[in-house]
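A further point concerns the way the authors explain their paired sequence and structure data. Each protein is reduced to its one-letter sequence and a matching series of backbone shape codes. An entry of this sort, consisting of the sequence and the corresponding backbone structure tokens, reads as follows:
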Amino acid sequence: MAKTVLQPGPNHPITVTPNPARIVVTVAGKVVADTTRALTLQESTYPAVQYLPIEDVDRSLLERTETSTHCPYKGDASYYSIPAGGQRSTDAIWVYEDPHDAVKEIKDHVAFYPDRVDSIEVQG
């Protein structure tokens, strides 16, 4: 069965803009990500989400899981856990490896659930 693909529009706008602030993500005293090249994705009335380049993430701290979800606006998401964070950090990170064209900028970027990491510090 084909998955639904929807386009952003007036009733469900999505914007992706560069965020030059330094963003540092930590778990169990370890820096998982540190970047000044994040993208802010604002989707409809949801809270803004910071997408960080995967290049700026310490992948040695990640473990891919079998979890996947589908967003009709963004595509299929895959998930990673951060074992150093214990059970709380299961599926702490998601990535759209092949995002829909409307949000193609988030390819090769990941996002973090704030409640599954110790901190997401935005400086500046």
Q: What stands out?
A: The mean pLDDT is 98. The radius of gyration is 14 Å. The chain has no helices and ten strands.
